[in-house]
Amino acid sequence: MTGLPAGTRPQAAVTVTALALGVDMFLYGSITPLLPELPAVDGSPMTAGVLFAVYAAALLAATPLVGAWVDRRGPRAPMLAGLLGLAAATALFAAAVDLDDGPGLTLLFVARAAQGIAAAASWTSGLALIAATHEPERRGRVMGLALSAVGAGVLLGPAVSGPLSDAFGPRAPFIAVAVLAAGDAVARIVLIKPMAVAGERVPYRVVLRGPRVALLIALTGLGAAAIAFPEPVLPLHLSDLGLGTTGIGLVFAGAALGGSLAAPVAGLLTDHAGPGKVASAGALVAALGFFLAGRDSAVLSVAGLVVVGFGAQLVLAPTLVLIGALAEHTGTAAYGAAYALYNLAYTAGLALAPLAAGATAKATGIPTATLIACGLAVALAVVLLSRRDQPSAASARPSELTRPGVTKDA
C-alpha cells in the first residue's frame, strides 16, 4: 500500500479508526462482568479462559488475509467488511446469554469468533490507514490517541454492561452495542475514501526482515497478554470477594481507564525517550499490578487490576510506532502487512494468556497465578533494561528515502 488515501484526511483516519477500535473493545469488555452469571460458563475459570481465547484465535486466523487485502485494495473495503462481523457477533451474544450447557456455550464461542474476524478487519486496516496518513514523527501521538479509544471501549463496556444487565436483563448491553455500531458504520462509510495502492504486495517475509522485528513482536504479544491474563479469572475472584455484576463491571472500567490515560502519555514518551525505556517501565508497573491483583482483599485486587491496565499500555504504545517503521524499511510501504504482523503478535497474547490464566488458576488458585504473572513481568523488565541496543525514537523513524511516495532512486 502506497501513497495517501485520496480524500481521506488525517483527522478522519484517526477518528474512524478510534471509533472502530473503541466499539470492538466495548463489545469485548461487555461480556466481562456477565461471566459469573452466564449459565453456559457456570463459574469455570477454564471455560471463561477458552471463551476469551476463541476471540483471539479467530483474529489470529483472519489477520494475515486482511493484511494482504489491505495492501492490495486499500483499507476501505476491509473496514466495511468488519461491520458485518460486528453485527453478527452482537446478535449472537444477545441470543446466548441466558442459555446453558451445549447450546449456550456454542453460541458464545461462535459470537466470539465472529467478533475476532471483525476485529482483524478493523484493527489491521485502521492502523494501516493511520500510518499511511501521518508522518513517522507524528505517529506516537496519533497511535496513542487510537489506543485511548481502545481503553475507552474497554472502560465503557464493563461499566455500562454491568448496570444495564442488573436493571434490564443480560441482553440489554448488546442493544447499546448495536447503537454504537450504527454510528461506527456511518463513520466508516462516509469518511474513508478509496485509496491508490501499489501494483504488487510486499511479502510478509520481507517485512519480517525489518529492524528489531523479534523484539517488537515479543513486546506486542506480552503487552496484550498482560491485558488478557486477568480477564477470565479476576471476575470470579472479585465475585468471591463479594462484588456483584455492577461492581465487577466498574472495577474493569477503572482498569481500562488506567490504560486509556496511559496510552497517549506513552505515545508522547516514546517520541521523546525511545520505546525501550517506556516498555521496560511498563513491565515493572504491570508486575506491581499483578502482585496486588490476586490478594484476598477487594481493595488491593481492584488497585492491582488498574495498575496492570496502566502498565500494559506503556508496553504496547511504543510497539505501534516501531511496527509502523517496519512497513517503511522497503521502497514500497507495506502498512497492511506490518500491522497484520502487529495484530498477529497482539492476538497471540490474547489467545494464550486467558488459557494460561484459566489453567494456572485451576491448578494453583488465583493468588498464585497472579504471582506467576508478576514474576514474568519482572523478568521482561530485566531483559529490556539489560539491552544495550534499545531502539530510540530517532532510530525508529525511516529515512526520507523510505517514506511513502519516495523511491530509493529519487
Automatic annotation (TrEMBL):
Q: Which residues form the signal peptide?
A: none
Q: Which compartment or compartments is the protein found in?
A: Cell membrane
Q: Which organism is it from?
A: Streptomyces nondiastaticus
User: Transmembrane region positions?
Assistant: 12-31, 51-70, 77-97, 109-130, 142-160, 172-192, 213-229, 241-266, 278-294, 300-327, 339-359, 365-385
**Domain of life (superkingdom):** Bacteria
Pfam families for this protein: MFS_1
Chief location bin: membrane
The membrane topology of this protein is:
Multi-pass membrane protein
Q: Where is the Major facilitator superfamily (MFS) profile domain?
A: 10-391
Q: From the Swiss-Prot or TrEMBL record, give the protein name.
A: MFS transporter
Ordered alphabetically, the record's keywords are: Membrane, Transmembrane, Transmembrane helix, Transport
